Amino acid sequence: MILDLDIGNTLSKWRLKEAQSSEIRSRGAVWTREEWRPGADIPDLDVVESVRISSVARAAVLDETVNLLRHRVPHVYVARSMRESLGVVNGYDEPRRLGVDRWMGALAGYQLAGGCCAIDCGSAITVDFVLPGGSHLGGYIIPGLRLMKESLKLGTRNVTIDPESEAEALLEPGKRTVEAVNHGIYMAAVSAINRIYSEVCDQQGVALPMLLTGGDARVVSRGVQVPHAVWPDMVYGGLEACFPLTLAERAGKMSGAPNVPEPVSLEKIRAGLAFSMLL
Ligand SMILES: Nc1ncnc2c1ncn2[C@@H]1O[C@H](COP(=O)(O)OP(=O)(O)O)[C@@H](O)[C@H]1O
Ligand SMILES: CC(C)(COP(=O)(O)O)[C@@H](O)C(=O)NCCC(=O)O
Ligand SMILES: [K+]
Fold first, then answer.
1. Where does the chain bind K(+) (predicted)?
2. Residue 174, number of CB atoms within 10 A of its CB
């Protein structure tokens, strides 16, 4: 078995994948902390031959995790942001400083779709661009839905957006504090995404397929007008591409990859941008 770990600032996600069949056997998530309890937080390590890790938590979290695993698992692979991987050239001045979850998303998106706009809606919302030739442009970081809400300190902290809510309802003016806050942060997130996408496609002269991942991807997806696909396993896709272990992975297949969304034409993106400027 292969254990994939995606350690974010809020949640540590894990997934157990069968090495022969490439089937996903189980998955889960726990709050990010320094100590894992195999058998409780993550599956029993006896069945695991290889672990692949993407971590953006504090260095101590990764160190503790690797220390625990090194003694119990034959192969431990830790992803790092590089200057260049798999045909993608990192756009950061200091490539290693790019969050490795963003790098994994950019690599997975490029492997799936060629050029892409890869968005991760987690503790932070990150928007990264890769052009069809593999040039990563860098990206944008804004606070995620939960962080935006917590920063307001209006006593609405524990009333989260219902992930089943419809976008139309979430975009209406709120009539209570909780509603005003939830609708405000939702509007902030989706309008930033729509605008960033249009601006960059316009600047670069290319309409790119958009891919969404992260804990808030589904609810954010409903408010994003640009055609896109939600890919919950996008970070894992980057791990599969960087450290291919199964036959399917060696052939370039990433588990759970969506169909590539067909972007709207550049003319339409530009018309939308021009229209929003006139308002
Ligand atoms: N069951 C859940 N528990 C905690 N957060 C959740 C849950 N479902 C959705 N969320 C949202 O997802 C975010 C965490 O998403 P995730 O992509 O795992 O973040 P990160 O990678 O930063 O840890 C939270 O900030 C919250 O807004
Ligand atoms: C921007 C992030 C905090 C997002 O992390 P997440 O929301 O997935 O927990 C993470 O990618 C990170 O720590 N990045 C380093 C800074 C950078 O990418 O420039
Ligand atoms: K994120």
1. 120
2. 15
* Cα within 13 Å of Cα(117), Cβ side: 27
Q: Which atom of ligand 1 is nearest to the CA of 214?
A: 17
Ligand 2 lined by 127 (C-beta under 6 Å): no
Query: Is 101 one of the annotated active-site residues of the chain?
Result: yes
CB 239 within 8 A of CB 272: no
Check if 11 has its Cβ closer than 6 Å to any atom of ligand 1.
yes
Could you give the strand order of the β-sheet that contains 116-121, starting from the edge strand earlier in sequence? 136-143, 124-130, 116-121, 210-213, 228-230
237 is in an annotated binding site: no
8 annotated ligand-binding residue: yes
The ipTM value here is: 0.95
Tell me the per-residue pLDDT of 37-86, one tens digit each, with 9 for 90 and over: 888 888 889 999 999 999 999 999 999 999 999 999 999 999 999 999 99
